[in-house]
Specification:
The chain is mainly β and 374 residues long. It has a single domain, classed as 6 Propeller (Neuraminidase), CATH 2.120.10. The protein is built from no helices and 28 strands. The two termini are 23 Å apart. The N terminus is likely disordered.
């Protein structure tokens, strides 16, 4: 059961779903592709894209627990128009590291290369110590060029930072590459392949890296085995990215690229992940690779994409997604609550329009409520 309520906070709505308050907030300044994280003090850290889809900028804002609005925006990228949002699967990713340092990484726009797609950089930056701006962006790729579906960034509370992407001459031979830092992103080692298994990687599909505060590192990506097996793989490293174990979490046989995205988030006792398969979104805890059990929202699938999720202090998980989104096409925001075991509670709530090239983001607040940005 749920009820809609109007909240006086600008372009913002809310609902209560099985006792959990859910607030819907439009991205500031008409931005798209929000990425959000909540720190130990309950502060929301948000990045979003502005500009032309083939070459725009990323801005950073934050909101403390007692604030009713976000802070003034800070531009993240030091080279203007160096970020690509086309296709929705690309765009910048956000991670919080040691002492709450904000880390951001993104696939370069072809604008940086004079419109050429060859040897596009994978850029990285972090918030400076004064928290007044971001360090100059830098390319972490040393040899594994071939970006297409973007990349991702992860950070733990021990000072490790990881930038991951997939690259290779053909989909069937693409690999996931990881460049690691042990000094809070000040320096990065030469990138290494994450896993030796020959799965390929779906070129136009997004991927996701995530690190638990204690150091466990995860990477999610879509395979391209024999060009038709677009399965979702979850890799996990417990030695700071030196070696990985992996599992095929969900199979999907399809000859075309689904242009999908995935998400991971830290829960109350476990790490959760969500992804798309066969036109539906799924979620599961992934801490134990041998016990991944995909669950999906109730209701009709077929056009559900770009999942986002978070788990609150009570253990409930809110899964949000975009329905009907496509190439140069808007979607409809939907979300549903799940219990700590992955069981759906009630029916999905459907409402607001998700802009072209965008996708939702979800965070859990310290009081147990959720915020969905779109």
């Amino acid at each position: 059961m749920f009820r809609w309520i109007l909240i006086a906070c600008g372009v913002c709505f809310g609902s209560t779903v099985y006792g959990a308050s859910v607030q819907l907030v439009r991205v500031p300044d008409g931005g798209i592709q929000p990425q959000v994280a909540s720190d130990n003090m309950g502060v929301l850290h948000l990045i979003y894209f502005k500009g032309e889809a083939m070459g725009g900028d990323i801005f950073y804002v934050k909101q403390a627990v007692d604030d009713s609005s976000f802070s003034d925006p800070i531009q993240v990228n030091s080279i203007s128009e160096s970020i690509i949002a086309t296709g929705t699967v690309r765009g910048a990713h956000l991670a919080l590291g040691r002492k709450g340092r904000v880390h951001v990484a993104w696939m370069s726009s072809p604008v940086v290369n004079g419109g050429k797609h060859e040897k596009l950089p994978m850029f990285y930056t972090h918030l400076n110590d004064a928290k007044t701006g971001f360090e100059p962006q830098r390319n972490v790729i040393q040899h594994a060029y071939g970006l297409d579906g973007g990349g991702s960034v992860a950070a733990d509370s021990l000072g490790h930072v990881y930038v991951a992407w997939h690259a290779g001459p053909e989909e069937a031979t693409r690999k996931v590459w990881v460049s690691a830092s042990a000094d809070d992103g000040e320096t990065f080692a030469v990138e290494q392949p994450a896993w030796g298994k020959e799965t390929g990687a779906c070129g136009c599909c997004g991927m996701r890296a995530f690190a638990e505060p204690s150091g466990a590192l995860y990477v999610m990506y879509r395979s391209a085995t024999e060009m038709v097996n677009r399965d979702m793989y979850v890799l996990k490293s417990e030695d700071y990215g030196q070696t990985f174990n992996g599992v095929n979490a969900h199979g999907w046989e399809v000859q075309s690229c689904p242009m999908s995205t995935a998400i991971m988030a830290l829960g109350k006792t476990n790490t959760w992940a969500a992804w798309e398969s066969k036109g539906q979104v799924y979620l599961s805890s992934v801490g134990n690779l041998s016990h991944i059990q995909p669950a999906n929202p109730s209701g009709e699938g077929g056009k559900n994409k770009h999942p986002a999720l978070a788990q609150n202090k009570e253990g409930n998980v809110l899964l949000a997604w975009s329905t009907g989104a496509g190439w140069k096409k808007t979607g409809i925001l939907a979300y549903q609550l799940f219990d700590v075991f992955g069981n759906a509670l009630g029916e999905p709530v459907v409402g607001e329009t998700v802009p072209v090239w965008s996708r939702p983001a979800v965070a859990a607040r310290s009081d147990g409520s959720f915020v969905v940005l779109y």
